[in-house]
Amino acid sequence: MTFHRDPSTFVNQVHILAKDVERSLLFYQEIIGFRILEHIGKKVVLTADGKTPLVTIEQPENVLTKEPRTTGLYHFALLLPQRSDLAKALSHLINTGYPLQGASDHRVSEAIYLADPDGNGIEIYADRPLHSWIKEDGQILMTTERLDIENLLQETKGEPWNGLPEHTIMGHIHLHVSDLQKAEDFYCKGLGFNVVNRYGEQATFISTGGYHHHIGMNTWNGVGAKAPAANSVGMKWFSLVFPNEKARNEAVNKLKTLGVSVQEEEGILITKDPSGNHIRLCV
Length: 283
Hints:
283 residues; metal-binding
């Protein structure tokens, strides 16, 4: 599938803040299976293939415990190449005894959910074949049903877990927002995403290129939820990759038309959504 390269716009990195970077590093290596790409002081860049950054962990000065009922990260989602990879990951998590928060069949994908030691949400998933996705009334049908764990585990074929496969990518991100309509206007009218599914009046899923979602947004922390403090555990920023400079410039101009500020810092274009989620706009 071609949903995470040209001509799509997609999420490719997440930067999170941690209470104790060494504790988090142990988790992300031994439980999730990342490799270290760069480790400088209290900041670590993590990779699956040894060259592509996916997650950065940072311990800021005077770090605060994760604030409840705020906007920010609900979870970031690691997309594994094959169903067998998801099976091996699940087998590994069962063997470690690390607590899971859920395991679901979404019809378009199969997923397992957990949180890091600071409560930052993580989804690990594998997509079902594109030809099996169903569209109804212009929306991609997604459900939340019990994952058939026994069937999935058969996919390991006795092969051991060996960390994240090198072709693991950042499949999507799911955000807590304060206002769904304002968030939709920002991401769709400004950044060029399209709504692919609505979950009642509390969650919206958007994508480019017909993917089931590159970004999920919900108000489960409350309509009008405030943004967390800059030094609070949680997400510092995530990045969006545009197919080319022209597409990014068009998005920037649309954001400015909506009255949204876009700033350049050390050659990087940065903006934030109406809920205070910071975004790096990349090519």
